Amino acid sequence: MGRMQETLSRPFVGHRDFRRIAHAIGYIDEHFREQPRLAAIASAAGLSQFHFNRLFRRWAGVTPRQYLAFITARAAGAALSGSASVLEASYAVGLSGPGRLHDLMVTLEALTPGELKAGGAGVAIHYGFSDTPFGTALLARTARGVCRLSFCDGGERREALELLRASWPRARLERDDDAAEQQARRIWRTQQGGGGASAPVSIAVQGTNFQLKVWRALLELGASGPTSYSAVAQAAGLGGSERAVGNAVAANPVAWLIPCHNVLRKDGSLGGYQWGEDRKRAMLAWQARETIGYRARSAPVKGSVRALTSNSLF
Q1: From 161, 171, 247, 280, which residue has the greatest number of CB atoms within 10 Å?
Q2: Mean pLDDT over the full length of the chain
Q3: What structural domains does the chain harbor?
Q4: How far apart are CA 84 and CA 190, in angstroms?
Q5: 246: closest CA among 297, 210, 276, 220?
Q6: What is the C-alpha separation between 17 and 25, in angstroms, rounded?
């Protein structure tokens, strides 16, 4: 009990609790037609019903049952409209709220060719590890802004740090976990504090001109909800280059801030994600929490939710 109380008092979750949540979301997505009971969902997460319900609600702001009802309703709507892929279409048409998904304003600065050639010589990079809504992350920043945000569960910290060093071989790296936690709090404001960041978050990234075009387009399109590779290509003025755009999306050095997790395949399926498809699915679900909560409060489902999963729909 003491450990669970300590977990629930933290602003974010560690990688173990995030993995439990991610497994539960995957279980709901795979079994929503069966309308599983809370006990079954909690068992998939490896927790008791009571502890899992509290953990999920603290993480998402909605209950597992509310998330299940949302996924079911969106899938039923997609089925009625003739979608070929009911579950996958729910990501494309359902998991997005009105307007921007968060209040963060992100400004992107690109390194100059001279700075790229210097490899970070004379640059001080403060980095650290922090819990986030999606597990442990490495956050690193220069005086100009965040230069790296990558997820690193369990024993992956060393690998994440080596990738940072490889990107900035001549920079002076200084570890500061407290600063990393403060940065994480600013990016993902706790639900208790509410609201978004009071000032823009600056990012300073290394990339080719092609990659920078794609990342700037992502900042515009992806911040409003799920989008597609073709839409990003068009917005970047790179129509017909979807494969190359996909490579640029995968090379994104700052997770979440450049929202590559919102890029889906043309059919609405998840596609790949350099920090894991479970995490991408969880990000889409977490973004939908306010939409789910609003619908649960203002438009409760009439009748049995099970009716939405009848054979006439699927």
Answers
A1: 280
A2: 79
A3: 2-95+290-309 (1.10.10), 106-272 (1.10.10.10)
A4: 38
A5: 210
A6: 13
For residue 191, what are the contacts with CB-CB under 8 A and spacing of at least 6?
A: 58, 61
Catalytic residue among 42, 160, 217, 260: 260
Helices (H), 81-176: 86-93, 113-118, 157-167
Indicate if 260 belongs to the active site. Answer: yes
Q: Which residue has tokens 């071989």?
A: 169
DSSP output for 18-37: HHHHHHHHHHHHHHGGG---
- CB-based contacts of 249, cutoff 8 Å, min separation 6: 214, 218, 229, 232, 260, 263
Distances (CA, A) of 123 to 110, 114, 120, 277: 15, 13, 5, 34
> With bands split at pLDDT 50, 70 and 90, how would you rate the model's confidence at 226?
confident
Q: Single out the residue of 285, 221, 229 nearest to residue 258, CA to CA.
A: 221
**Nearest-angstrom CA–CA distance, 140 and 167:** 12
| Structure-block tokens of residue 11 | 């602003």
pTM of the model: 0.79
State pLDDT tens for residues 118-150: 888 988 999 999 999 999 999 999 999 999 999
Condensed to tens digits (0 to 9), the pLDDT of residues 278-290 reads 999 999 888 877 6
